[in-house]
Design a protein that fits this description.
The chain is mainly beta. The chain folds into three domains: 59 residues, SH3 type barrels; 54 residues, Roll (SH3 type barrels); 115 residues, endopeptidase fold (from Nostoc punctiforme) (Alpha-Beta Complex), CATH 3.90.1720.10. It is 13% helix and 38% strand. GO terms for molecular function: hydrolase activity. It is an enzyme of class 3 (hydrolase).
């Protein structure tokens, strides 16, 4: 049976047009007015497959995830030139940090730079500090370092942004930034990212439980977005394994290594 998260519903695929997320973050819902499954960020591309009653049924370009977003959150696609490479940033009215801010953007948001000054990049949304942007085709090298940018971010089920993120959203943000393909949900990640390994933990290994995933920082420490702390936090691996099992959520189901 096909996964409806990744396979468009043929009964709804009445059109196919490109669009772009035009708000800082948009909920990708299971059904119109339904629960949030994931989120898509400013500048991310989607294919609109169906539209009705103010909702658009879309498939996200970054991971193929299907769901509903409000039509009002979508705009005309632009060719992005840069991505936000810091936890969050602002777009300002002018190339002046004291000018009014127009828009807040999370890590991973995609923008189109039209011109640059010494300190700012001009985009259709306003002026963004140059140091907060990286070329769209550039890749980071250390997923755990990217995950650490989200330390303290509030836990949010289905979240993908600096304002709220969940375990699989954190892992996806970290891996995609490093050019490693990664689906949106932890069960999908457990099946497709890297390969199973055993033995000592290495930096950037992934540990899975039923419905949860964490990223290894070193042989004793992991980082994860978790409901225990209600935030992205570091935790001792042995302590976390014992705590999660004692809480009734079972043992580690997989230990995988991206890039293997």
């Amino acid at each position: 049976m096909s996964d409806p998260r990744l396979t468009p519903d043929p009964a709804l695929a009445s059109q196919s047009r490109a669009a772009q997320v035009a708000v800082p973050v948009a909920d990708l819902c299971r059904r119109p007015d339904g629960p949030r499954d994931r989120q898509v960020l400013f500048g991310e591309q989607v294919t609109v497959l169906h539209e009705a009653s103010g909702w658009a049924y879309v498939q996200a370009e970054k991971d193929g995830y299907c769901g509903y977003v409000l039509q009002s959150t979508l705009g005309t696609p632009r060719n992005a030139t840069h991505r936000v490479c810091v936890p969050a940033t602002h777009a300002y009215v002018s190339a002046d940090l004291k000018s009014p801010d127009l828009l807040s953007l999370s890590y991973g948001a995609r923008v189109t730079v039209r011109a640059e000054t010494k300190d700012f990049a001009e985009t259709p949304q306003g002026h963004i500090p140059r140091g907060h942007l990286a070329p769209i085709d550039s890749h980071e090298e250390d997923p755990a370092q990217i995950a650490a940018l989200f330390l303290g971010t509030p836990y949010l089920w289905g979240g993908n942004s600096r304002w709220g993120i969940d375990c699989s959203g954190l892992v996806q943000a970290a891996l995609l930034a490093c050019g490693i393909p990664c689906p949106g949900d932890s069960d999908q990640q457990e099946k497709t990212v890297g390969a199973p390994v055993s033995g000592a933990y290495q930096r950037n290994d992934l540990l899975f439980w039923k419905g949860h995933v964490a990223l290894v920082v070193d042989g004793e420490t992991m980082i994860h977005a978790n409901a225990h702390a209600m935030a992205v936090s570091y935790e001792n691996i042995a302590d976390a394994i014992a705590r999660i099992e004692a809480g009734g959520d079972g043992r580690v189901t997989a230990h995988r290594r991206p890039g293997v």
